[in-house]
Amino acid sequence: MATNLTHFEIFGLDPAFELDRSALSARYRELQRKFHPDKYASKSEREQLLAIQMAAQINEAHTVLRDPVQRAAYLLKLAGVEVPPEQTTADTEFLMQQMLLRERLEDVREQANPTVALEELAEEVDDLYRGAQRQFAGAYAAGKFSEAEDALRKQQFLVKLQSQVEELEADLFGD
Hints:
This protein is an all-alpha fold and 175 residues long. It contains seven helices and no strands. Helix 3 (45-66) crosses helix 4. The protein is globular, with a radius of gyration of 20 Å. The model has no long low-confidence stretch (mean pLDDT 89).
């Protein structure tokens, strides 16, 4: 296997946001078996080094492709669009919505039924996240990379919020 392949090429997938996760996992296991460094223990030093490099490349590609946010950023990078991490979305309505959701998160403990309040918030955030994923997929497929970039930024916001919801849930109710 060449070492200059894209993550999608490594797994024999077309570059797209939507992908078959079971096919990705199956191909990952197959490649891991094929290029596991232990299989090359009796080979030359050069072959051992190549196996280590391939295993690392396979692991990196798998990590990026299985995570929707990383996959979206990678697709944009392949299209020549660099997404600076310090930049935020210009969608003021979305930013206001984020502020309100974070305020609700802060107020969960004071609710009459924190469990229900947190479940409702988690469901709303998950719905918004899925919507941002759909927005990215559509914009990317249409070649509207600035819209795709904005959808990626929204996904990044929402992933952070999902993480905060999960942290509060663990804090309130234990793991």
